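Weekly modeling sync, notes
Attendees: S.R. (lead), two postdocs, one rotation student

Agenda item 3: backlog of single-chain predictions. S.R. asked that every request posted to the team notebook include the full sequence so nobody has to chase files. The rotation student volunteered to paste the first one in as an example of the format we agreed on. Action items at the bottom.

Example entry:
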Amino acid sequence: MRKTNEGPSPVGVLLPSAVVGLLATLLLMLVGAIFVHRRVLAEQAIAPCALIFLAVGCALAALMAAKRAPGGKFLWAMGAGILVFLVLLLVSVIPLAQPINVVRMAVSLLCALAASALGGFAGANMRKRKKYRHLKK
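Predicted structure, as returned to the notebook:
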């Protein structure tokens, strides 16, 4: 088998990272909804918790994208975070057909960008394990 210098495709880097970030965000939002339903969490805390859950999902997506990316890790990480934000924005706007609150969207975007930057820096600075370290050259 021949090794080539080709890195993974953009879809191979961004798509799995965004899916993991989306799943993490939606799972955390489900847990938050259960807490609100059981009255463990007050209804006034829904908006701040949603921002925190969005930040965790974007950071996780950015961390995974930065670890998988061949070069320009920070840009890949920011792309994964923005992709998570855009998918969640589309999912929340299209079915409801309600007007967008621009201020809330801007705050969510800034939160997603900051979390993506932190996740990207963390992922870019992590060391990769060598797959074949047990084989001697």
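Discussion: group reviewed the output briefly. Residues 10-37 form the longest helix (28 residues).
Action items: rotation student to repeat for the remaining queue; S.R. to check formatting next week.
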